[in-house]
Amino acid sequence: MTTELQNIKNIRVSSRLMVRELGFMNQNLAATDYPPSAVHAMLEVELHGSMTAAQLVQILGLEKSSVSRMLAKLVEAGELEESPCSEDARTKRLSLTGKGKDIVQSINAYADQRVAAALRKLDPFTQDAISQGLSSYASALKACRENTAGQVQNNVKIVSGYHAGMIGRITEMHGSFYAREHHFGHFFEAKVAAGLADFALRLEKPCNQIWLAMLNERIVGSVAIDGEDLGNNEAHLRWFILDDGCRGSGLGRKLISEATRFCDEQKFASVQLWTFNQLTAARRLYESFGFELSKEWEGDQWGSPLTEQQFSRKIV
Question: Quick one: CA dihedral 184, 185, 189, 191, positive or negative?
């Protein structure tokens, strides 16, 4: 079974378990007398201060008629109150009543307690991973429903320069990916770590730079330009890697764009990179930025025999 299929299976199993354990199979939710849709509606109204029915339809992803009936019951129960919208008197804005605020406070206290109890059974590292992972997965699900393009790119920020933990994280991404996909071992991972450690000490020089893609404060991609290890005013593109969940999102193009722009600004004579012939998607990306295959040979500099390649990009 491929990694993607295994991830799909694991997420589906975990999602079903969460639905059951959080009580979404019950008639009511979060120790209230209300169904999940009503609980979520009150939480959204509290978050935004006041909302229209149309806004709730969009957020909850429910039919307009279903939301209208649910809101009418909450107004009748005294949880919500309506007021004319200042922009359009025909539209009503919904806000929580005093009773509704008390209910939402109880919902939040109940939910916080459930989450805290579960987190206490996990180590701190796993807690952080779950927090970041769930946030990213929830955003991806929302993007699928809204058919939003480029959602990963929109949530990712590109930063340059040293970032705490980058040597270990970039090494981890390289080691995990190349071990799984190409059976590289400790020789390759140690070489990546040693090279990054040396490069980090040279980052203060203006000819060297690294760019990191950050998602929820976690490094999910990188690329670097080493402007001095080759000499002859040639730049070396190094450590281009993306986290598994970011491949195919356009993020790689954004990183390479930053790197090539830097090379143009620094007026290097050319940019060189070394890779091997099994990385087809990366090759297409390199070629789209003007890199051309300049040399090919059988070698083992990454610890395994394979067809190594050198690509060059001349800067006019």
Answer: negative
Q: In a structure prediction context, what are the per-residue pLDDT tens digits for the chain, which is 316 residues long?
A: 677 788 888 889 988 998 888 888 888 888 888 999 999 999 999 999 988 988 888 888 888 888 899 999 999 999 999 998 877 667 889 999 999 999 999 999 999 999 999 999 999 889 888 887 888 788 778 777 766 544 555 678 999 999 999 999 999 999 998 888 888 889 999 999 999 999 999 999 999 999 999 987 889 999 999 999 999 999 999 999 998 777 777 889 999 999 999 999 999 999 999 998 878 788 899 999 999 999 988 877 666 788 889 999 987 6
The CATH number for 95's domain is 1.10.10.10
Report the distance separating Cα 24 and Cα 26, nearest Å. Answer: 5
Q: How far is CA 249 from CA 4, 177, 180, 219, 244, in A?
A: 16, 17, 21, 15, 11
The reply to whether 293 and 205 lie within a common domain is: yes
Q: Which of residues 121, 140, 165 is at a domain's end?
A: 121
- CB distance 217 to 236 below 8 Å: no
Q: Which one, of 89, 101, 94, 96, lies nearest residue 51 by Cα? A: 94
The verdict on 193 and 310 lying in the same domain is: yes
Q: Indicate whether 143 belongs to any domain.
A: no
Q: Which domain holds residue 74?
A: 3-121
**Does residue 12 lie within any of the structural domains?**
yes
Which of 121, 144, 165 is the C-terminal boundary of a domain?
121
What letter would DSSP give residue 229? S
- Same structural domain for residues 163 and 263? yes
How many folded domains does the chain comprise? 2
pTM exceeds 0.85: no
Cβ-based burial of 269 (10 A; exposed 0-12, middle 13-18, buried ≥19): exposed
Q: How far apart are CA 55 and CA 58, in angstroms?
A: 5
Please answer whether residues 276 and 306 qualify as being in contact, where contact means their C-beta atoms are separated by less than 8 angstroms.
yes
